[in-house]
Design goal:
10 helices, 26% strand, 2 domains, Copper Amine Oxidase, Chain A, domain 1, alpha+beta, globular, binds zinc ion, 5-stranded antiparallel sheet
Length: 357
């Protein structure tokens, strides 16, 4: 075999390998309960599948089209138009912007969204749960934010020998988002990052006044945080509870109330019945209900922000910026004080009951 022949053989082998790559990433998609559609035109970018918007809409029986004048993809939904744009890291529904983890991208001539869109935002468009499965999950080792954050969490949050003193020694509070990362934006321009900052500061004051304990905040003004800065407050030795504050948006203006998230039971080392995060969430829910604030429920979530380990941790979605009552509560000083007071009472009750364990 001469070298020219060998080169040709190698070349055709490489070509074959290259051509075979797109087929490796089939996914299944459907509204939950319906037979799923198998999609094969999937593009992997750093291990993350990108699905063509046309294919995605077909699979959930929605219609849409590319508006080449406005440079947006318009999607017709039961409640009006939604818009995606390759230049914008958000989904616009009516007048409300919902942040996306990744910008939509034109790849191979088609506008595509990452699988995170299918997992997080698509159910909002069809107003029902989504079934999504990646048939060939690709494990790619990468040093992205999430894996860094994951490593930090696993390192920092293993407080196996929690001091059970009579009271909480200190509380860490994370005001979600900040700076360019605005979070959800209400129709009137009010931003989630402002709601979380206001509440963090109110709650911090009321806790210091009534319990006289140190409160560690991730931020005390409007700026963006690195993942390391985000969890810095939890690195203090005396932190006995961690609250992460957020607010959400919904397609429906009827959706209202506070939702509480704790780690998924799969991540738990401890017996679920003694899960401190869940008990903290229950106390917070009770106090919120007591002051008349509707509570949607307590949910287990594999959210990366919730980290790992035994530190009692609750992520609180303080309300919907898309609901008039919630919005009024979130942006008015009286409403913020009421929310802060309820969260303080919940923390205090959690602490009082904890010492009996
Ligand atoms: Zn948020």
């Amino acid at each position: 075999m001469d070298s020219g022949h060998m080169f040709k053989l190698l070349y055709s082998l490489l070509l074959l390998l290259f051509l075979a790559t797109p087929g490796l990433a089939d996914v299944e998609l459907a509204p939950k309960g319906k037979p799923p559609l198998r999609l094969s035109d999937i593009y992997l970018s750093q291990g993350l599948p990108y699905i063509a918007v046309d294919d995605m809409l077909d699979a959930v029986s929605l219609r849409g089209h590319w508006d080449s004048v406005k440079h947006v993809y318009r999607i017709r939904t039961a409640r009006g138009w939604a818009e995606l744009s390759p230049g914008r890291q958000s989904l616009k529904i009516g007048k409300v912007f919902f942040p996306l983890k990744e910008k939509p991208r034109f790849i191979d001539g088609r506008l595509r969204v990452s699988e995170n869109f299918l997992l997080s935002q698509l159910s909002m468009l069809i107003e029902r749960p989504v079934y999504y499965r990646n048939l060939n999950p690709v494990r790619v080792e990468q040093g992205g934010d999430d894996s860094t954050l994951d490593r930090l969490f696993s390192f920092l949050l293993r407080k196996k020998h929690m001091v059970s003193g009579p009271r909480l020694r200190a509380v860490a509070i994370d005001a979600g988002h900040g700076g360019l990362d605005t979070g959800v934006i209400a129709a009137d321009g009010y931003k989630e990052k402002q709601a979380t900052l206001d509440l963090a500061s109110d709650l911090s004051k009321i806790l210091k006044m009534n319990l006289g304990i140190p409160i560690y905040l991730s931020r005390d003004d409007d700026y963006e945080l690195t993942p390391e800065q985000r969890i810095e407050p939890v690195t203090h030795e005396d932190v006995d509870a961690w609250l992460l504050l957020h607010a959400q948006g919904s397609f429906s203006s009827d959706a209202e109330g506070v939702a509480l998230f704790v780690r998924s039971p799969e991540d738990k080392i401890a017996d679920n019945r003694h899960d401190a995060s869940r008990r903290l969430a229950e106390e917070l829910a009770l106090s919120l209900a007591e002051v008349g604030i509707p509570v949607v429920g307590i949910f287990s979530s594999p959210l990366i922000q919730l980290g790992q380990g035994d530190l009692p941790t609750v992520l609180i979605e303080l309300g919907y910026l898309t609901n008039p009552t919630d919005l009024q509560r979130l942006r008015s000083p009286e409403g913020q004080k009421l929310l802060a007071r309820a969260l303080y009472l919940g923390l205090d009750n959690f602490s009082k009951k904890r010492k009996k364990d």
